[in-house]
Write a structure and sequence with these properties.
Layout: H1 3-20, E1 49-60, E2 65-73, E3 82-83, E4 86-88, H2 95-107, E5 116-121, E6 132-139, E7 155-162, H3 178-196, E8 200-202
Parallel strand pairs: 1-6, 1-8
Antiparallel strand pairs: 1-2, 1-4, 2-3, 2-7, 5-6
Length: 211
Amino acid sequence: MSKAANRISVLNSRFLKRTFSGTPKMSTEIETPVPAAAPPKPAPTKKSALTTDALVVRKNLKTDRYELLAIQRGREPHIGKWALPGGFVEYGEDPTVGVLRELEEETHLVGYPDVHLITVHGNPKRDPRQHIVTAAYACKVKPETLKDLAGSDDAADARWIEFETAGLEGGAELAFDHGEIVAKFRKWFKETGEQQGFYVEDPEGKQPGAQ
């Protein structure tokens, strides 16, 4: 080999060494893909609930005075306080049916199907358990069931209380906002309900358990 050819070979060798000596080696490791973060779960949706309250009046023929049906609450909230008979409307149930069902379950009194809506209360703070909307209905009960009156289910007791003063100072203290409901009912009763006969006459005028 001539000196010129030898020199060219050396230069090519140096060029190739410089060119490929810094080439990174291919990695044989397979990288595991990092899974994408799951989207945050939406906050649980808060829902309101629907209850009904029954407004029932009897005319005590012994005293010639009107009295309001009340139950003594057997559970919290407001355990031991007087309240209107009522409870939660079941799924698929018409409130006008639910109010009579709850009335019978808590007092054993059977109401006529013709009920009258007095008011709807829905203040989110009216019940400490949750946002509960209530529909209050005037109900007339069958006189033959008066003898069966007794507290049952959620009610520890059931009584007739003075209608004129119920929920007012000097009268029976009522749970929740039932005093406001009774005040609206009292106004409607004086203007309309009494003339329509939305009460039951009771010639004996006894309280449950009285002889």
